[in-house]
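Provenance

Sequences were taken from public entries as deposited. Structures were produced by running a predictor on each sequence independently, with no templates supplied. The record for C4-dicarboxylate ABC transporter substrate-binding protein from Rhizobium deserti is shown for reference.
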Amino acid sequence: MTTSRFAQWGLAAAVLLATTAPSLAAQWVLPSAYPPANYHVENLNQFAKDVDTATKGELKITVHPNASLFKAPDIKRAVQTGQAQAGEVLLSLHENENPVFGLDVVPFLATSFEQSKKLWEASKPAIEQALDKQGLKLLYTTPWPPQGIFTKRDVNSVADLKGLKWRAYNVGTSRIADLVGAQPVTVQAAELPQALATGVVDGLMTSSATGVDSKIWESLNHYYDTQAWIPKNVVFVNKAAFAALDPAVQKAVTDAAVAAETRGWALGAEKTASYMETLKKNGMTVVAPSDELKKGLSEIGAKLTEDWSKKAGTDGVAIVDAYKKM
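Predicted structure for C4-dicarboxylate ABC transporter substrate-binding protein:
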C-alpha cells in the first residue's frame, strides 16, 4: 500500500474521531418537581454547570424542572430503574418505604436551620445506607424554609382547621389532617396552583417558598409562621450510572455536590426572609401563631413523634437520641 493511501486513511480516521468525539460525552437527565425560578432548581442548574466545567464537557446534566419529565412521586423510581440517571425529590415523599426518610418532617423536632442541619448529620448515615440498598447514591441535600399554615380563615387554635380541604403531600401532612379533622387532598407542588385556583385545596402547611412559587395570595390570605419543621430535598444518582463514569468524572460530581449542599443551605436561610416579605407585599396577613395554636400543634407534634418512633424502632430512636445530644 502506498504512503499516500496510508495518509488518506489516517486523515479519514482523524476526521471520524473528531466528528464522533462529542457523542462520547455522558448525557444525564435530572428531573425535579419544582419551577425553574425556585432556588432548589437554580441550585441544580449550578450543580450541572459546575460538573460540565470540571469535566470539560465529559458529563452533561440536563435539569428538567416543574415535573415536566416525571411527577414528583415517580422521580425516585425513575432513577432507580435507569429511566433518569439522577433526580431530586422531597425526601419525606418516600416515608412509607423507610421511616428514616420522614424524620425531617416530624413536627417541632427541628425548627431552625441550625437544628435541621444537626438532624441531617445525625440521620445521614442511615439515609445513605437506605438509598444505597435501593441502587441510589446520595449526592447532596438542600433544606426548605420552615413550614407554616396557609388558610383563607382566621386560625387561633387547631379546632379552626377542622373541615378544611387540606393539602397532603406526605405521611405527616396526611396525619395532621386526620388529627385536626381536616379533609386530606393529595396535591404535589406542580399541581398546587391549579388546586388552589379551583378550590380543591383551601388550607395547607408548607413553606413560604412554595407559597411564593404558587402565588398563593391569589387564593388564600393568611399565613401562620408556625415553623413546624424544615423538610429537605435530596439529590441522588443511579449507582450504575455513577459507576460507569471515569474516576476523575466521579470526583467532579461529588465535589460539585459538596459545593451544592453548602450553597443550598445558605440559600435556604437567605431566601426565607425574602419569601416572607413577598407574601406581605402581596397582601397576605403574616403572623406568629397564637399560644393556643402553638399548644395544639405541639400536642400534635408529640403524637406524630410517638408514631414515628414506633415505626422506626430502636434504630430510629437512636438517631433522635444522637441528634438531641449534638
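The radius of gyration is 23 Å.
The first strand starts at residue 26 and ends at 31.
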